[in-house]
Amino acid sequence: MLALNQSLLSPDVARKWMLLGLAVAVLGVSFLALAIGGVDISLERLVTILFSSQTNSLEQAVIWQIRLPRLVLALVVGAGLGACGAAMQAIFRNPLADPGLIGISSGAALGAISTIVLGSTLLSDFSAYYGIYAVPIGAFLGCLAICSIIYRLSSQGNRFTIVSLLLAGIAVNAIVGAVIGILTLISSDEQLRDLTFWSMGSLAGNSFMMMLPSLVLMLACCIGFSRLAQPLNLYLLGEQQAKHLGVNVVSLKKQVFVFTALCTGAAVALTGIIGFVGFIVPHIVRLLIGPDHRYLLPASMLGGAILLCLADLMARTLILPSELPIGLITSALGGPFFLIMLLKTYRIKEL
What we know:
Radius of gyration: 21 Å
Order of helices and strands: HHHHHHEEHHHHHHHHH
Helix content: over 70%
Oligomer: single chain
Low-confidence stretches: none
Distance between the termini: 12 Å
Largest sheet: 2 strands, antiparallel
Mean pLDDT: 81
Strand content: under 5%
Strand order of the largest sheet: 1-2
Number of strands: 2
Structural class: mainly alpha
């Protein structure tokens, strides 16, 4: 397994160029995402539309009402998942860790599927009352509920160990999987289609008004992660060494857990399950610039934004006029990457 302290570039080169290059790449990918789609728009026309006050053309409607909300959502969700992955890999001190280990995805799936299947019956017209917000609210509440259960199971008094967190997450994930299976079994054909589409992820159908609370929450969590960069650097030395250097290790792990749960929960609530972004991006960034979280966290945010933006661009252009679920794109990229990492691990062990 690759160690957390490996890097391919010298720290000086990385600090000078990596963040700047990623920021420029984000701008470039953003313009491409706005220009390319079912209706292609030239970059010159795109700039005119973005800075024009006229709102009566088809192209302006496409940009402002469809592509720009998707772009903003892709950028913020990608940044949030990238930061969550980097923080989780630091806390677990394992480059294969991701937010799914603490039950976030399964909790959100349980909340969303419960809303779809039971929202009009056992949940007292929950779906009718909240309308289009019902599934995102259900997913977010489900995420928080499952994360709270895992946290309570893994903490005893002031003790909060990574091993207990991992074991509690595995056990609760298994139980949640069984409940989801039962709900899937009793769902109607229409409900089955809805929950299947939700579980594969999509950035479509979100307006700025619908996204605003989740976007604010995700951005706040990203800022919170950035403030933990120095303690995470010390934590990589080991828990005892970090304690001797003045880090409150228990508080650090709790903060990472809470920020990860809120950020990933807010993302999954809007987009469905999008896997591997929090796994791939921090890993690649760490190989390039090393484990210093003062640079790793912002670079992972920018890298996650780029990856999800490109994945969304592929999802809505590969099979026009239909659209692929974005979760399929990220899984298609993440699966081979994961296998490469495993093969690399075996080769290192054989040496």
